[in-house]
Amino acid sequence: MPSQVTSFDRHQPTGVAIFSEPVHASVNNRFKRALDIAGAVVGLGITAAVAVPVAIGMQLSDPGPIFYSQIRCGYKGKPFRIWKFRSMVVDADRKKHLVENEAKGFIFKNENDPRITPIGRFLRRTSLDELPQFWNVLMGDMTLVGTRPPTPDEVERYNAHHWRRLDVKPGITGEWQVNGRSTVKNFEDIIEMDLQYQEKWSVFYDLQLIFKTLAVVFKGSGAC
For 139-177, what is each residue's pLDDT tens digit? Predict the structure, then answer.
């Protein structure tokens, strides 16, 4: 649950507390950060191990950069650059307007997106495309378990209650990923999951979601 923090304004009389916005307990939790660092180190080791075969498959499928980066919004809307193995054609962003959005609300989703390359479909089905995000976790912009990091154009259209999902750091996995991200196409449902995560949060709950994520990945279900 969120914890209330206070700050003191030097221009106010001594002893008058000015209350700032609540800070969610997960944001500065040392155990969560230790789990993130440990997981990121292991994850980056796996990333390095698969990078060469992924690069070879990518050049055979659709020559171009092995990595894809994009600006996303993190904690309290702070922008950061997210990293993934590229799963779409090189000029995918410029072709987005040609693809129908099957989702409802401030997200974009198409199960049969023609911009996804053959190797990209494999990377997404196995969630291997997400591995470079362990660098974002190590740098502190993301966490192992959190909420989905939105794009700036999505955040620009947020209503007031949507901003609450940015009260925690974005995660590689979370409620949405564990509960079938390819089948959840209503943005309001994602918001509800994000807020449920914030209410349920504990380090133990994070561990539960990590193990559930591994089960989902091994089954090959839920990927988009």
Answer: 999 999 999 999 999 999 999 889 999 999 999 999 988
182: exposed, middle or buried (Cβ count in 10 Å: 0-12, 13-18, 19+): middle
Domain range summary for the chain, segments of one domain joined by +: 31-219
Question: Residues 89-147: pLDDT tens digits?
Answer: 998 888 888 898 878 878 888 888 999 999 999 999 899 999 999 999 999 999 999 99
C-alpha span between 160 and 18 (Å, rounded): 22
Residue 8: Cβ within 10 Å count: 11
Distance of CA 112 to the CA centre of its chain: 21
Residue 2, both tokens = 């969120």
Cβ 84 vs Cβ 65: under 8 Å: no
Radius of gyration of the chain (CA): 19
DSSP string of the chain, one letter each residue: --B--EEE-TTSPTT-EEE---B-TTTT-HHHHHHHHHHHHHHHHHHHHHHHHHHHHHHHHS-S-SEEEEEEE-GGG-EEEEEEE--B-TTGGGGGGGS---SBSS----TT-TTB-HHHHHHHHTTGGGTTHHHHHHHTSSEEESB----HHHHTT--GGGGGGGGS-BEEE-HHHHTTTTT--BHHHHHHHHHHHHHH--HHHHHHHHHHHHHHHHHT-S--
Q: Distance between CA atoms of 63 and 75, rounded to whole angstroms?
A: 34
